[in-house]
Every structure is written in C-alpha cells, then in structure tokens.
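Agenda item 2: fe (ii) ion complex prediction
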Amino acid sequence: MFALCIKTKNFHWHVSGPHFHDYHLLLDDQADQIFATTDAIADRVRKIGGRTLRSIGHIARLQRILDNDADYVTALDMLAELREDNQRLTVRLRHTHALCEEHGDIATVSLLEQLVDEAERRAWFLFEATRRERSWRMAAGTRDRGP
Ligand SMILES: [Fe+2]
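Presented output:
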C-alpha cells in the first residue's frame, strides 16, 4: 500500500499535459485514500496480535508494487500503470480475503471487502479518465485494455 501510495503521489507530482489539472487532483485524491488504508490495515494487524511495518527499509523489503523512477512518463501511461497496479492489488486482497474467511476472521474480511471496493473504484476512475484519449490512440493503431 505504501509503494502504491508513493507511486500515485509521484505521478500526481510529475503528471503533465492538457489534462494536468484533472489528473493532478484525481491522483491526489487516490493517494490520500491509499494512505488512509495503511493505518486501518496496521491497526487491524495489531488487533489480531501481528506485527506491522516498522520502516522505509521494511516496506522496501516487502514491496510488491514496482517503482517507476523514470524521468518522464506520459499521463496516459501513468494512469494505465496505476490502473494495472490497483487491479493487481485487488487480486492479492481477494487471496487474503479467502485466507481470513478460512480462519473465521470476519472483521478482517470486512476490511478487505472495503479495500477491494476502493481499489476497484480507483481502477475504474483511472480507466474512464482516459477513455477518449485511448480511443484516439486506438484509431491510430495502438492497443488498449479495459479495466
Ligand atoms: Fe500535491
């Protein structure tokens, strides 16, 4: 979640182009939402006796969302990459959901359902925010993928 949060902030800070304002605000909202999940998850982990993240180094060792340190990324590529990252996140959340169901941890199941809904909402917004531009790209022969 921290890696996705920082990547979303990274793109919020570095996005450019004709839709700068809209994308800048969209990514800020999404980064805020992702950041808010980190405390809910960590608190839940502590409630069931687990240990949480302790440092940036710890985050880096457990990171699954890949960084994007490129000097320049187009706005469309930023949104497409985040959409895929959020979709991958929902897959992992679903696996965790199944595990928690097996163990009868209904409160974590409930939290995970909320996190899946939020990640799917982010992926939806990222998809729809670029639909028209992607249509133009497709007309020019560039491949496109749905949400
Ligand atoms: Fe900002």
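Discussion summary: Residues 20-47 form the longest helix (28 residues).
Owner for follow-up: CH.
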